[in-house]
Amino acid sequence: MEDNKELVLRIANLIKENKDIVSQAKELRSVNEKLEKENQAYKQIIAKLPPEQIPKKIQEQMVSKTIRFRMATVLYLDILGFKSISEQQGSTDVIDELDQILIQFNSIAKRYNIEKIRTIGDAYMVAGGVPVKNITNPLDVVLAALEMEKYLSDLKDEYEKQGRKFWNLRIGIHTGAVTATISGRRRISYDLKGDAVNIATRIASASDYGKLNISVMTHALIKEYFVCEYNGEIPVKYQGDMEMYYVKRIKRAYSKDRKIGLFPNEIFMVKYKLRQFTDLQEIILDKLERELPSYLYYHNYKHTIDVVNQAELIGYGEGVDDPAILLLKTAALFHDAGHTINYDNHEYYGTQIAREILPEYRYTEDEIDKICDIIMATKLPPKPTTLLQRIICDSDLDYLGRSDFIPVSNTLYDELKAQNKMGSLNAWNKIQVSFLSKHHFFTDTANKLREVNKQSQIERIKELVADDED
Known about the structure:
Blueprint: H1 2-47, H2 56-61, E1 64-80, H3 82-89, H4 91-111, E2 115-120, E3 123-128, H5 137-161, E4 168-183, E5 189-193, H6 195-205, E6 211-215, H7 216-222, E7 226-236, E8 240-250, H8 266-291, H9 301-317, H10 322-334, H11 346-357, H12 365-376, H13 387-396, H14 405-418, H15 425-438, H16 444-469
Parallel strand pairs: 4-6
Antiparallel strand pairs: 1-3, 1-4, 2-3, 4-5, 6-8, 7-8
Helix pairs in contact: 3-4, 4-5, 8-10, 9-10, 9-13, 10-12, 10-13, 11-12, 15-16
């Protein structure tokens, strides 16, 4: 019996040790990713300096660097027919034509934030999610590949009308982990290695001419938006047989050009941005964590996370659609970002930061204007005029009706006191009673969730005031 008891204790200790190790590993990964981002930023700054200003030791370190990306999407493209066409036209003309095609491909890749990796002869490789990690890279690469295929198909039709031979195209796409070797100082280049590269190459070789062939991994990440057709299996070392799919077009519900399905419509882009929001949120929260003053005990990045979550919850409770949820969550993310510039009038500064950053994430001018209006509605005293503005105001002051109201309220008091904007705690509590008594939630959802508890908080604060006065 004692032996069993001892065994159970040992197992329990092992489980605890394992949890601690997992937690430490997670923290180390997070720190490592943050350091990688900072290192990339410093490297870009150094790249702009004259060589004579850079110490020799640093120059040696900058020759090459290897980074692992857990999720990248590799596109491998074979442009076939070089030999037969060069015999007909002469190699110089063919190379010039190939250069024009690759220039067009590079232009398409750039619009989708895809990195050119290398061109070897008539083989071409690009990758999404490198060197900037993002969650949308499978969608970006497939959209770019559809444009590349259409461009070459149209060019081929023109040549055939002239009785000239033209290129055939085979495309393979796979999503997986890659290792990128980054080299160069002024002109940075990338070389990818890993199973993802090898599989993309094999997927391309298994494709028919003029078709876009993708692996089952990429298919799982893009199938909601694209019409796909099963294309059999190929054996993959250490992984068994891997399914492949042809991408035909964007689904009609998500396509701007419903006949050919080449360009995404507004519905697609809203869903895209909602998926992309994870990347945007990581960037902004990192900015807040690094740049917010240390005395902001209340208006910190945790408050921003809270408001983003509440905006989504109340938004769905009020029955708003996906485009509105996108606007709400984005406004919540930026609503306190202005604190990195100035405490007073931070709402306005938050709109300026949003206007600077959001175009990089494909937000339209109209979307940005609406987001900025929502942010400005959080300025006290709140005077919202639209449903979305009412939702953000309730989200921002959601803590008024929560059970943790007093400890959260105390962090706001500490923040104001640190700036000499508030006197005693008793004076603060009196202000809180007055504020709570006059405050009202603007949405039915917030009233149902928080109003009853808010009233109980008023009584709790009144007791604290009375106790202080005694």
